[in-house]
Design brief:
Layout (H helix, E strand, L loop, with lengths): L7 E10 L2 E11 L4 E5 L6 H8 L7 E6 L4 H4 L1 H7 E4 L11 H5 L15 H13 L15 H15 L3 E5 L7 H18 L2 E5 L3 H7 L2 E5 L5 E5 H4 L2 H8 L3 E6 L2 E6 L1
Parallel strand pairs: 3-7, 3-8, 5-6, 6-7
Antiparallel strand pairs: 1-2, 1-4, 8-9, 10-11
Helix pairs in contact: 5-6
Length: 259
């Protein structure tokens, strides 16, 4: 059987801020086609860990490798062709149209003095259509609602076309139908295009339904990881969120409700 090398790997990774350790000696591999959910309470270090995995913050100890090489070895532009990162709060400092904003995702694929091509514009149009924003292509980005802006940030990431997506709370500001549509879209890309996803989520039921693996951050340096069936249980979720939860449903349609 062919074994694929991990797109993202962490070895002996320790991450923390201000004297608080969020994970200690973490070993993690994310392979093509994986969809990994990161779960934990507020302040448990999910966003901090994701930024370290994205090469945007140094770890306290250990190393992160992107497709077998460190970020410093690859450089920023080469890394951006492989890894895409969605921050928790996208920000637009200047006025631009929706499609101009989406086209920013093509910049890692362009030369220093190169302009976007017709192909780049087609890629941007397809990405906007995928998130339901095709009709807003010529709107000023600063006139969008919070949910529309979040979907545009995701479309920009799709324009970038990386093999690894690191998504910090991608469901923020989205209503229920767009939450499910986005998770279905990410799951399809993982399954059909072998794109790997690492997603910070708050709902263990959605993680169990749309992801194949989970990483739990308990906030004190301890972590737990495995398949969603292994680690997303009423016992582990009750401990993780600090409140007793009961599991209802079956197979991939599992939900956790307060006791």
């Amino acid at each position: 059987m062919l074994t694929l090398n991990p797109l993202l790997s962490a070895r002996d990774l320790t991450v923390g801020v201000a004297g608080v350790t969020f994970c200690r000696n973490l070993h993690l591999d994310v392979h093509p086609g994986d969809c990994l959910a990161i779960l934990g309470r507020n302040g448990a270090g999910k966003s901090t860990l994701l930024s370290v995995l994205a090469g945007l913050r140094p770890p306290m100890a250990g190393e992160v490798r992107l497709d077998g090489a460190g970020y410093h070895q690859r450089g920023a532009q080469a890394s951006a062709r492989l890894r895409g990162w969605l921050p928790q709060s996208p920000n637009d400092a200047f006025a631009a149209t929706v499609i101009e904003t989406a086209l920013i995702g093509r910049h890692p694929h362009l030369g220093r003095w190169e302009w976007e091509s017709a192909r780049d514009a087609d890629i941007a149009a397809q990405a906007l259509a995928a998130v339901g924003l095709a009709e807003l292509a010529m709107r000023d980005v600063q006139t969008l609602s919070g949910g529309e802006r979040q979907r545009l940030a995701i479309a920009t990431l799709f324009c970038q076309a990386p093999r690894l997506l690191l998504l910090d709370e991608p469901l923020a500001h989205l209503d229920l139908n767009h939450q499910i549509a986005l998770l279905q879209l990410l799951a399809a890309r993982s399954r059909e295009e072998r794109v790997a996803c690492v997603i910070v989520l708050h709902d263990p039921g959605l993680a169990a339904r749309f992801c194949n693996r989970a990483l739990l951050l308990f906030g004190d340096g301890e972590t737990q990881q495995g398949t969603c069936d292994e680690v997303i249980t009423s016992e582990s979720m009750s401990r993780l969120f600090g409140y007793p939860l009961r599991e209802v449903g079956e197979e991939s349609r599992r939900w956790f409700v307060p006791v």
